[in-house]
Design goal:
Layout (H helix, E strand, L loop, with lengths): L8 E4 L7 E7 L3 E6 L4 E6 L5 E3 L7 E3 L5 E10 L2 E8 L4 E5 L12 H6 L6 H19 L14 H11 L5 E4 L7 H14 L6 E5 L4 H12 L4 E3 L1 H6 L11 E5 H5 L2 H8 L5 E4 L14 H12 L2 E5 L8 H11 L7 H8 L2 H11 L8 H6 L5 H11 L5 H18 L6 E2 L3 H4 L5 E8 L3 H12 L1 H11 L5 H4 L1 H6 L16 H11 L11 E4 L3 H15 L5 E2 L5 H12 L7 E4 L14 E4 L6 H9 L10 E8 L3 H13 L9 H15 L3 H24 L1 H9 L2 H15 L3 H13 L1 E7 L2 E6 L17 E4 L2 H6 L3 E3 L5 H12 L5 E7 L8 E10 L16 E7 L11 H7 E2 L3 H10 L1 H16 L2 H29 L5 H19 L2 E13 L4
Parallel strand pairs: 10-15, 10-16, 11-13, 11-14, 12-13, 14-15, 17-22, 18-20, 18-21, 19-20, 21-22, 25-26, 27-31
Antiparallel strand pairs: 1-2, 1-5, 2-3, 3-4, 6-7, 7-8, 8-9, 23-24, 24-25, 27-30, 28-29, 28-31
Helix pairs in contact: 2-30, 3-4, 3-29, 4-5, 12-15, 14-15, 17-18, 25-27, 26-27, 27-28, 36-37
The chain binds adenosine-5'-triphosphate.
Length: about 1000
Amino acid sequence: MSDFSPGQRWISDGETELGLGTILNVDPRSVTVLFGASQETRTYSNRQAPLTRVIFGNGDRLEAADGWHLTVDDSKEVAGLIIYLGEDDQGERRELPEARLADSMQFDQARDRLLSGQVDRNDWFDLRFRTLHHYHRVEQNPALGLSGPRIDLIPHQLYIADEVARRHAPRVLLADEVGLGKTIEAGLILHRLLLTGRAERALILVPASLTHQWLVELLRRFALDVTLLDEQQSLAHGETNPFESGQLVLASQDWLFANPERQAQAEACEWDLLIVDEAHHLDWHPEHSGPGYRCVERLAARVPGMLLLTATPEQMGLTSHFARLRLLDPDRYHSLERFREEEQHYVEVAEAIDALECLPQDADERVRVAAVIDEPDSLALLDTLADPQAGPEQHVTARDQLRDQLLDRHGTGRVMFRNSRRHVGGFPERCLHVSRLELPASYRRVLRRLERDEDYLDELLIETGLDHPDVLVYPDVMYRAQPHDPLNTEPWWQFDPRVTWLLERLADTGEDGFADGKVLLIAHDRETALGLAEGLRVLGGLHAPVFHEGLSLVERDRAAAAFADEDEGCQVLVCSEIGSEGRNFQFCRHLVMFDLPLHPDQLEQRIGRLDRIGQRHAIQIHVPVFADSPGERLLRWYREGMDAFSAPHGIGSEIYAAFGDALAESLLDAASLEDVITETRMLFEARQTERNAGRNRLLELNACRFDRAEAVIDAIRELDEDRALPRYLDQALDIFGVDSQELGRGIVHLQPGSHMLDGLPGLVQGEEGFSATYSRSRALARDDVQRLSWEHPLVREIMGRILDGAMGNTALALLKHPAIPGGRLMVELIFSTHCPAPRQLHLNRFLPPTAVRVLLDESGANLSGKVSFTGLSKALKKVRKATARDLIRSRHDQLRDLLDQGEAEAERELPSIVEAAQSRMRRELDSELSRLEALAHHNPAVREDELKAQREERAALDAAIDSTRLRLDAVRVIVTVGEDD
Ligand SMILES: Nc1ncnc2c1ncn2[C@@H]1O[C@H](COP(=O)(O)OP(=O)(O)OP(=O)(O)O)[C@@H](O)[C@H]1O
């Protein structure tokens, strides 16, 4: 191209964001352009410069470098430079030489780009329209944020995620029984909040031993890229706050709770959500609370959303449990006494819920319901339900609504979610195998003396520094604590029969043996675990990795990975108590409790490693005990006092508080043990009956409302089975330059093509790319295959780039049609609703960008209703860019008039779009608001700030929707060609 002259204004085709350029220099080979707004200079080859001359036409409004505006009505050319003539905003006639146009004039808007002759590929325009269409659809799906994660669709988890993530700044305790998927629930909530714009930054605090597992789960299941922060990483940030280094930060509790400076840095950041796993460790006492509790308490006061996770909420006692509820909602949980008192009425509420099923047939049951309700809306529903004249449909609706109201208005339901195996169902059986072994002489010697001599216990405690009753229950620990005893010369594992017992079982292929599967072994003490591993190696030649608190995180993960490997992995993993929390070991079927923990909740945590979602076998729990030892008595207490091995019952903590001391006393005294067991059993049965009738029942009914869970699952399935996604993605990948290769069985491999556009997640030039599938079940079966969904980061990135940028917002194509003579012009205009609002309002659920298409022929007739987008698109032929530019230049004025007319046509559709969005929003938010207001009367768990936020949100949404405008998003010029052209 040789017609460049210094001073002319041109724009870069590939980098429109640089703004308007000025030719600085031209020589026979190259042309140099200054882009003043971005302070960039580019030199291009003179022959192939990807530049378009910017020439405005009559009616265009221009901005001058010194800020005034000119509406053009004429132009002239002087020495190759254009001078625009027209009127300024005050109506004065002025001239504006092109060299004095503002550098900052924007050229990404479709109108400007088109009129300045910039056109994109025709298929880009198609993709842009389809993107708008699908985005509009998907954003309104109620399952948005829940459909992308690579998980099985398990009702209780999806119910909780949906219920919690729709709340303003949710603050809840996720307290499902062990292994039912609290991590998954927290991940789902986080994912949905992020995708819908309700949260942007989250801090996740987990025990050190679980950091890696969380990191992997969040990446593998939720495609969330999390920054794992530790001291080493933090030091690398020098003076800057390391917690600012990512949007999602994962850190170890052990590290943060011990480090006041780092805590101050974490507190100094803005977070939307705080997640704390294994929250039962946050212990609180009136005189002294633990450092973890204090740290979380300070964060809780600043961070609006909070999820606490624990399977054993009362493990540190009821007071600590209450204190954690208070962290979530200090207004609601201010008095422990009152909390206890409320619990007394749960039975009546649960009975009233059951009574609903008997109405209207059994009129007497009405009284039971009426006894617990007094709100007029509930009473009206009860009247309908009890009225035999009402129709069956009315009965069903009234029953459902009343049930929801009863659940909503009483109990801890809004703050605490606890699903149990009993309620969820479908979990494997637990089988207990006890092996009685003879007490070795070295242990017996001490125990006998303890039984005979009361003072010896005190001496022993002082001498060993151990606690009571640990000294009794862990004889190998006691043995090791007396290294100076001349009789204690051998390592304990050399004579402890549990070691040989274990070796025999590991090798045994018979019914009693462990040879058919992996074995997780948990011992209370780290030294026991280490010694045992040594014993296995020396006595049996067996290598067993050890997992304990003394290992670094990397070493722990290595040990767990060595165990998990299906083909190469070791048969047994030896863990100290630290292995009994949070880790996923459901691929094992044998659990060996080398000794027993002293707290029932700890016992349940141990079993929970295997008894979790994904376990496919009955769980074999093996306990070797020494005959007539304190360990055997402890076992009896667990079995006979509370059936601790058969199923979780959630009252371990209360039982331990009541009988822990008496039990410790009776471990040496078989006679008093009988009484402890009898009394434990009585309390256990009484509490269980009480809780199952009241609190547990309410918690269960509240933790999963199956009909609502089903509705969420249906919405997810709709997205899962959406056949439009593969079609859309095929086209998008092709345009973005991603190569896709079918691998068979529904799996494709995606990798960067040679012309791939940069910055697509998971695809880097020169790297392999990734394999993926649209099928949920296939993705679940194969860790190495990602799942493609509308929520996959690659799909979101592609859609975002198209919608936020200018890609494909102008095009020109030819149409050959026997009925239309050549040389005619048509324009296809795509308008989109534009409605600026803060992201956290999640406006898209009511009014996502909505396309309005207008198709005009050159006479201005609107053909949109007659000619569909797809029909027209199929008939179009592409054209060279240079020809397109010439065509546009020659029809500039006519095109501008058509654009103006199209705008007026589209505007006519706006009111109905706004009205529909407004009524959708009001319907949903008003009913939620009235539900919340009614609830607040009864259940103080509704926080005042929640109500306030809900009202403000409604007002803000109303205003935002009201201010919706239409913006021209894309335009395609269509030129007809005759049969002979
Ligand atoms: N919906 C699901 N789809 C697939 N796997 C799941 C699902 N829910 C849970 N799992 C798997 O089941 C195991 C237990 O889940 P998770 O770790 O979330 O339970 P948890 O309640 O947090 O356990 P714990 O009480 O031990 O902390 C994990 O391996 C998890 O990946």
